[in-house]
Design a protein that fits this description.
- By secondary structure, the chain is of the alpha+beta class.
- The chain is built from 4 helices and 6 strands; from the N terminus they run ββββαββααα.
- Strands 1-3-4-6-5 form a 5-stranded mixed beta barrel.
- A hairpin with a 5-residue loop joins strand 5 and strand 6.
- The longest helix has 13 residues.
- The two termini are about 45 Å apart.
Amino acid sequence: MLKGIAIGNLGSDPELRYSAGGTPLLRFNMASNSRVKDQDGEYRDRTEWVRVTVFGNRAESLSQYLKKGLRVYVDGKLETRPWTDQGGQVRAGLEILANEVQVLTPREEDQPSQAQPQQEQRRQAPAQQRQPVPAGSRPRPQPPETFDPDDSDLPF
């Protein structure tokens, strides 16, 4: 088995389909950017595209959260998939059959319209509410009243 791990941004909104047997199937393309030095010694940006497929219940749940531009971590099995281009030639490409997909984009970046009011509320909160409670002022937990250190019912 070949294992593939990728971190990148979704190039488009994912597409949820169902197989003939009714199995949910989520597909999306993700781009991973890197900077490489060319023969002239200049740095150039390079983008690699990877196709990702997710099966089952995970596909349905991820379809509700994933959208174009989100940064994700994908871990899964690498598999070669043939496809036909516009000229009718059969080509092949690598695809990750994902076991794990994690969204890496923080929620504030994902949904700025909802995050900004929350941030404003935090900024406007009184200073006393944001200060940590000193460790000495916290009540210490007390052992239960029925605790008997000489209890003979202990299993050891």
